[in-house]
């Protein structure tokens, strides 16, 4: 799956590879230290924040929980 911002796709792929490696090689073997991918995540997160701003997406709209509410059944506006 691509990132919300096209310019973030390569960063997302790098983070995804790091996360998959951490998850399979460390987490599933009991190592809960997730700092391995933290630097990549910070860079990717920064890119995402810029893409969200550039696309005029309101964070509050993303954070609204619709599952299990009457809003879940409404078509997108």
From TrEMBL:
<dbReference type="GO" id="GO:0045332">
    <property type="term" value="P:phospholipid translocation"/>
</dbReference>
<dbReference type="Pfam" id="PF05254">
    <property type="entry name" value="UPF0203"/>
</dbReference>
<keyword id="KW-1015">Disulfide bond</keyword>
<dbReference type="GO" id="GO:0005758">
    <property type="term" value="C:mitochondrial intermembrane space"/>
</dbReference>
<dbReference type="GO" id="GO:1990050">
    <property type="term" value="F:phosphatidic acid transfer activity"/>
</dbReference>
<dbReference type="GO" id="GO:0005829">
    <property type="term" value="C:cytosol"/>
</dbReference>
<dbReference type="InterPro" id="IPR007918">
    <property type="entry name" value="MDM35_apoptosis"/>
</dbReference>
<protein>
    <recommendedName>
        <fullName>TP53-regulated inhibitor of apoptosis 1</fullName>
    </recommendedName>
</protein>
<dbReference type="GO" id="GO:0005634">
    <property type="term" value="C:nucleus"/>
</dbReference>
<comment type="similarity">
    <text>Belongs to the TRIAP1/MDM35 family.</text>
</comment>
């Amino acid at each position: 799956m691509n990132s919300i911002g096209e310019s973030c796709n390569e960063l997302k792929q790098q983070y995804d590879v790091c996360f998959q490696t951490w998850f399979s090689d460390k987490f599933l073997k009991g190592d809960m230290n997730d700092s391995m991918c933290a630097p990549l995540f910070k860079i990717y997160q920064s890119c995402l924040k810029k893409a969200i701003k550039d696309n005029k997406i309101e964070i509050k709209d993303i954070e609204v929980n619709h599952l299990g509410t009457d809003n879940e059944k409404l078509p997108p506006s």
